[in-house]
Batch of 2 targets.
Target 1
Amino acid sequence: MIVVSGSSRHTLPLVIKLPPLLSLSVMPIPNFAASAYRHIERLNPSRLNDFMPLYLQQQPVGWVTPQFATELCRQREVFQLRTARSPYGHALWLEEDFATPTALTHWLDQLNSELIDAGLFSHTTGEYYPLGPRRSLPVGLIDRACVARYGIRSYGQHLNGYVIDDSGNMSMWIAKRDNNRFHEPGKLDQLVAGGVPAQISLAQNLLKESQEEASIPAELVRQAKAVGTISYCAATEGGLKPDLIFNYDLQLPQHFTPHNNDGEVERFMLLPIAEVAERVRDTDQFKHNCNLVIIDFLLRHGLLSDEEELYPELVSGLHPALP
Amino acid sequence: MIVVSGSSRHTLPLVIKLPPLLSLSVMPIPNFAASAYRHIERLNPSRLNDFMPLYLQQQPVGWVTPQFATELCRQREVFQLRTARSPYGHALWLEEDFATPTALTHWLDQLNSELIDAGLFSHTTGEYYPLGPRRSLPVGLIDRACVARYGIRSYGQHLNGYVIDDSGNMSMWIAKRDNNRFHEPGKLDQLVAGGVPAQISLAQNLLKESQEEASIPAELVRQAKAVGTISYCAATEGGLKPDLIFNYDLQLPQHFTPHNNDGEVERFMLLPIAEVAERVRDTDQFKHNCNLVIIDFLLRHGLLSDEEELYPELVSGLHPALP
């Protein structure tokens, strides 16, 4: 047994008696892969033709439309268009060295404030996302509301909350998003899902979101398992979203009932896992990226058939290389 | 409950009593991601500079070295070099339409037989792999022994056989490859691992390999869960290997002991999962691609810490886009 000291999740070794052989009363979801593959396609356009790369201190950090590139060049002389081996034939370069990440952050804050005055954004959030390939060592921070315009990676955490009853049947807690939410109102969602701003640990953010969104006690949240990521690169009206989502599984006690604290969830439903899978396969009821998180869950729990057409493509499609 | 008819695995609905909340007595493996990432790097060179794409009937199907391309052009006039947007600047085109997959297969057999006479291969196996992006709908077949020379995708299946004891401790069955094996003799391996030739279903091949390699009864093999794929693109002395491995998890009863039937395994060991992880992290005892299968297993079972440096890169690195 390995005991890790200093971890904020898993603070106690858990030793619980298990039966020697476990099996669930679920069978592979039929005719799943070929139908569900549309969710991968929707979030990963085959070409990035509408966008050009944005370079910052010689590193590619994002993707912008030609229109937005023109606006940025108009606003600051240090932005320059250069020819490049990009789908568009051009790249946008920011020709300035910033002494510290804080200096770059302030400079971008000022720029974005002027762009709001010019009508290009509606607002800022005061919540920041990291710039650059490493979330833990950013070259600067940028307001969350502006991330897609610059085509900068945003980070999320999604928690699959599931229950196994005494007969071995698996169900999953599903949230219905409030109809007043700005993004994808009324859509179905994971039990807990949210962005991970800069400068907070994944464990701390999961704890915070789980309490705000679903009132899950801290000692339960700490049992959640980090089970990998999904990624996608969606071309949206608001810009490019090359996003990375950290996935978690949490098996909940049968007597636990979530309730929402922040007004973002209309109600929670406990649905049999087969019904969850069928809604992903047959409908567009889920928020786009939630479909990918559920496909990953079904896959990891052995509920997809390896004999189906597009099984390899569906599985690989959860992890496209981000530009 | 979903019941699928006609599936060769999962022929009976399994309804087994489970406790309402399961937890294993394992904690995240410490300091894993940054160290284990070397296995991803070794199997995925950052550039394909030593290879050029091979086009067959206008479709890219493989990657060849300039030396091998020259040999092929010498052997058959229908091979031609063309300039292309490849790392090498050239592509090798096969300028011939074959009426049927069988016609292409026979043509390649004849060609490879001549290349053996010319000393470029040592032998053929009589076992065939599919050509083209779809395993189930190949444009032709090619002998397994020649696959890497042409840089054609090969397919494998790896089965993680694990045990959970009455105290909730997880162990994994590990094979030690026989010292007389041609590829990676004496290395550690999954309980069952093998190639998937063309024209056999994944389920049938898993059944066959599980019985030959580890004497696992058919009724146990059918409980194995298809839990996804790993891929890699290794540049080896024998050529390029852009391979796809289908992964399976099988929880075995405590009283089961594997034994080998085909002489390919020297012995089997039941190791605590933490020790398996530590060998992946700290040593190169495992056959190269087995490390990736175990990393995927640890990830799916929540045994990697999401707070570690390179956790996102390690996870995404299990699924590079294949050329």
Target 2
Amino acid sequence: MDSKDKIAVVERYVEAFDTADVGIIRDIYADNAVVEDPVGSEPHRGLDAICTFYEGAIGAGAKLVLTGTARCAGNAVAFPFQVIMPGMKLDVIDVFEFDDSGKINSMKAYWGPENAGE
Amino acid sequence: MDSKDKIAVVERYVEAFDTADVGIIRDIYADNAVVEDPVGSEPHRGLDAICTFYEGAIGAGAKLVLTGTARCAGNAVAFPFQVIMPGMKLDVIDVFEFDDSGKINSMKAYWGPENAGE
């Protein structure tokens, strides 16, 4: 999977929040994907559980702003961003891993209470 | 492991490059640690192999500058930074995972050729 294709998925991920379109989330994740957000919490397993999770975040009005370049390596991409919600900003790093068909099969989000601000 | 302790390890990691002190690397990694830099390449396994790897980078004059906040989650910390070497800058995201004694037992570095600049 080329870096440009991985970066395009990151851009579609940002677009899903911008346009409040969970259909994009359904399209970029594999059926059997696992989302751990934040790392250390109970993972969301499978596309339906994942879409329900994102409906919550997108429904709450969250937007994403990239705060650095996407780093592509192996079957993965890592990227730093800020989640912006009414009255709250949160610094996050996500790591996507892709399967052979170019779908995300693992997402890990790194953030903690220290990363929240106004 | 508290977030402040994880962040202190990140700061010591930066210091290891600043002061060209591989002794710090030997102190913050576990004996059986695995370093995959970049992700997708053959990992360096065990403290001796890891120190040899870092001696190369540190000996080449590499310095690290954090480019965002460290994100602590679960047993891990992820942080964005730039590697600065003569004539080259490289955007990287590292993920450290810690064992129960507070040593790094897994390091994954995310970067690709697209992340290099002058």
